[in-house]
Amino acid sequence: MELKATNISFKYPSAKKYQLKDVNLELDNKKIIGLIGDSGSGKSTLCKILSGYVDKYEGSVTLDGQPLPKKGFKPVQLIYQHPEKVMNPKWKMKQVLEESWEVPDDILSEFGIQKSWLTRFPQELSGGELQRFSVLRSLNPKTKFIIADEMTTMLDAITQVQILDSVLKIVKERNMGFLLVSHDMDLINTICDDKIYLKDINGA
Ligand SMILES: Nc1ncnc2c1ncn2[C@@H]1O[C@H](COP(=O)(O)OP(=O)(O)OP(=O)(O)O)[C@@H](O)[C@H]1O
Ligand SMILES: [Mg+2]
């Protein structure tokens, strides 16, 4: 499993300067990489490009040599920092999950999800509880690569480790790739095999 970004350059339409310039990155499922950078340096922008949420950029992103599919299921799944922003507030959590896949009971309990939460709306759960759903949603059996963009920033240390342990267990079992974006150097040093500083690979 190889996720490769070649000469990625990107400018927001409203901006004067490029946010990303000639960024090259090679990720695989053998090593967990941590991506580090200052606030506003373009980490989330790069994550969106790597997972297929941005159309207009220069360069290419390939997964095992193939461009990312333009339609349908996204094999590179992005877990956002703020899960509430990407969940339909009118759906109960059961529907939010099932939109992606039918999660077996043992995985629900592995992630500490209580059955009663399934019949609640997103706004009726805490940030940490919601993030468990967001992570689980990304673990569709078709997923090849997970990009976790500061997914645990809003959680306390214990919950953070619990969720990451559960997700990394599945990532290993299924041979998926995993990129962790974080400000937290302790977390990166604990979880990741290697780290990359965005400023070192960004020519902008
Ligand atoms: N939709 C947008 N339109 C215009 N500018 C944007 C847009 N989204 C982000 N930006 C700008 O692009 C820059 C990079 O933003 P990005 O979210 O990628 O940074 P980041 O490294 O993820 O920061 P943080 O660590 O705070 O999450 C910022 O200056 C931001 O203001
Ligand atoms: Mg960000």
UniProtKB/TrEMBL annotation:
Any one Pfam family match given in the protein's UniProt record, by short name: ABC_tran
Keyword Transport: yes
Origin: domain of life: Archaea
GO molecular function terms listed in the Swiss-Prot or TrEMBL record: ATP binding; ATP hydrolysis activity
Record key words, sorted: ATP-binding, Nucleotide-binding, Transport
Chain ranges of the ABC transporter domain: 3-204
SMART domains for this protein: AAA (SM00382)
GO biological process, one term: transmembrane transport
Assigned protein family: Belongs to the ABC transporter superfamily.
Name of protein: Peptide/nickel transport system ATP-binding protein
Species this chain originates from: Methanobrevibacter millerae
